[in-house]
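S2.1 Query sequence (Undecaprenyl-diphosphatase)
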Amino acid sequence: MLQPRLLVPTAAGLVFLGLVGLIMSGHSFAFDTRLMLLFRDAADPSVPLGPAWFQEAVRDMTAFGSFVGLAFMALTAVLALWLCGYRRLAAGLVVSLLAALVVSNGLKMVIGRERPDIVAHTALTFTASFPSGHAFLSATTLFTIAGFVGLASRRRDIARFCILMAAIIVGLVGLSRIYLGVHWPTDVIGGWCLGIVWASVATAWLGRSMARSDPA
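Output structure tokens follow.
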């Protein structure tokens, strides 16, 4: 039987590939529309649920998954690893995250899925829809950081705590993209799945290799 650390990324990878195949073949998902409308006023779908302060809080949350937000978090983790003497691990983190950024933009251009048009967007968008860059890059960045910190600390409790905190933030970032009307739910699911796969491979392959090269 596959262990959870193998089962989860394997299942996530299969879901991502399935979504890519269906989307590129022109398949549409009825639940995409239904889920998006759950976040909207039934009488006026152009209005998100909740008071103005809540809508602003959601925009703040989505900023955690922006390029600037993730760059600051990644820079903090890289510098912390570097200053603690894990310089190869820090370099590996930089390589992994930069490669993920390139892949994210490349997939959007190749797949070319249109953004949702059933509700008005309440945040600016500049690229195609699938996979959600915020979902993919936040999952990649935060789960990879969690994995690398776990390797550096050599403590499972610290690794699990970092993964838990990463999962909470990644989940909220993805939901915020649906709430703001800028992504289909399947865009977010695809981004989450690819991010889980990317972070798992980066930690197991690149991270462990770099950690062995760094001083104990």
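The chain has a mean pLDDT of 86. The helical segments are 4-24, 30-38, 52-63, 67-83, 87-111, 133-153, 156-179, 185-213.
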